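re: ur question from the group chat, yeah i did fold both. here u go
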Amino acid sequence: MISELLTFNGGLSTKTSSHLIGKNEAIICENVDLESGLLKPFSSLEYISTVNGEHITFYNDTLVSSLSITDDRFYDTYGGRLYWSDKGYTTSGLRRYTGTNAGISADAPNGISNISLISLAECSVADNSGQLTYQANYNYAFTLVNSDGIESAPVYHPTTITPANKTKLSTKISILKTNLSTVIPSGYTMNIYRIGGSNPTYNLIAEGLNSTTMIDGDTVAVCGAGNYCFRDKLADIDVSRIELYTSENTPANTHLDMLISNQGTFYGAVGNKVYFSRSGSAEFWSPLDFIVLDKTVTGIGKFADTIIAFTILKWMKR
């Protein structure tokens, strides 16, 4: 419904000229039920705070801004986390918001510092529940996951397990309780990947391991007193299809600029190159994953599911 607002200033006026109305007046209202109620103008803009920089975004109802007018940011989010690129940072061209406008380098957490503190052995329990392949070779890799759900690069255990007893066919992975905080720091959990048997790649066999999710050796004798352990009994065919993808700890280029994401993959420019991250992980950028354009990149945009990179005279889509 469209209605005209009438004024009665010395006579009936069908409409007041727009340049004569006050700031709190209007000459047209649309889609309004005027049967009852009080018509009020919108309130003025609300002052929130003063910022030093020119690049501002809202994240979880919080105002996040650049630190200065030279702090040239491009924001984007993934996995509930806020990221931005800034080629002016010398330590990392990619930053992550953690409660302050400065942020931190968006790097993956460090991996396990001392793999020798994790013990691998063929399980001593002959209960016929293990389903590893008899006399096949198995190797294991371990990663840490921080409270943000970001996974570290793996550390590969040097021990090869070759099940030699058909009544056991399982691996006991154990950590002394006195060493657990060194292997799995507070606020982290551990994931385990396995390769071998009929599986040619490292695949996830356990995740979220810590003192509360591992077996307590003081209450379960098979684990061994004074240990936390995990028992790998999975048959090759039952191993998950989740492959180990954080094979190298490779953060973004220190001069990354123009950050943008599309379907879980981040993109950014350095000179005439467009780099892209590992899908689903903003922390991992292979130094070999880039596209070379013939001129310096001046902008990166997104149209539907397509990323478009611009140069001074040309554009290219991927």
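okk and heres the other one u asked abt
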Amino acid sequence: MSKFRYLLGGAVAVGSIGLLAGTASAAVTYAFTNGNGQTYATQAVNSSGGALTIPAGLSLLVTGDAAGTTTTGNSFLLQFTLPTGVTFTLDPTISVTGAAGGGTGAVCTTTASIVKSGGGNGSNTVTYTVPTATGTGTSTCTIALSAFTVAGATGLGTTTVSTFVDQGTGFTMKEQISASSGATPSLNQATARTTGLAASTSALGFASSNLNAAVINVLPTSNGTKLSQAGLATTNVAFFDAGTLTTTLNTSQNATATGQFTFTGTTTTVTVSGNFTGVANAYLAPIGTVTCATTFAGKPATGITGSLAGNAITFTGAATGFNAAPGVGQPQEVCVYYTGTTIIGQNPFSSPVSATASIDSTTSPTVNLATETYNGTVQPILYTGKFGAYGTFIRVVNTTAGAVQAFAVVQSDTGSTGSAQVESALAGNSNDLVSASTILTNAGVTLPASGRAAMTLLAPAGVFFEQLAVSPNGTLTNLP
């Protein structure tokens, strides 16, 4: 006949302890709680090599429901089991407190009567023999586990998100009552119950927001050198608000669970990656500023000027003081400024501008910033005039129903630059063949002896370009 029921209560975290349903009765109830589950910083776990302190707070609440329940002379084994590979490095001790109804309480005994009977330091289990006492009806008592230390909890060094759950996943610890003596009561649990004991998270929080898509205008008068962006008061501007980056010291414990984990460094390094063709300058706004000045000259005095190298802009000294404010986000705007004369490289939806933050040996996951996309066709052409008798032409294909304009931005290998109109009103659904030399002449550029130059052809969406070589007999050859 069933004698007891086992109830799991309280919120616990990744890592666990558990009580499983055994027998049920109106006589005595048990509720296992973890009132002090901790979330550790993954950085702390890695620094300690998986050696952690688990604070006191694990307890078994026992309540007598029927006066005069006779348990004197009985005992049971109470065993706690850590995950595979994790061991105790300090024997936890058990204490008994209570009882609300007087005496030592239902199924409780004195602390001195409880003895460790197996496992402990160096093992992943610890077992206690617990003598029982006489229940007094409404009395309650608590069997509590002291703080203890463990080794080998390296799994918590890679967990980035975890919650306190009543499940057998994550970093867990099991509890089981078994081998009880005496026929009244029978305390055996058929299966151990598992519940959360500890959680972990990276102490470096890094997120992006305020992401307004930008459109690079390929038509006059911008010709791909300026853009328009939602949220800006004006259009066709030479700057890009890439979005807000927020750095947070996530609330998490050090390895000894004695306080908030903090980094050794006091600032982060932010690296923003993307296609930065046409970029002249960039800055990271001061903490709390989530807008950009209209020109780089308007940079706030405490803004951080970026270092541009290829496809990366680096901001050193970001998130100043974030270590001192656990759980409080530190927002900073990413502000990018273009030359206003060079065609802007696009960062489309498939490959937007992105960012990471780093401090000490920790680098955050990559977050995306705003996108920049052309509002038409942009086609680069590499030109050389050294084809002898062959002439070089640009074929313009208008697949739209309406007349279109097309333009070219030209840069000679001498450094000479210019622009020219290629089509003033090419009719819908028609094609044209335009001499490359005519475009170069109209752009006013000077070619070197090699005859080489680069053209970027611009037109509305639906217009396409290709480069052709035309032989003296009129044969057309596609050029790459």
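fwiw on the second one: The first helix runs from residue 42 to 48. Residues 1-27, 65-71, 100-106, 161-169 have pLDDT under 50 and may be disordered. idk if thats what u expected
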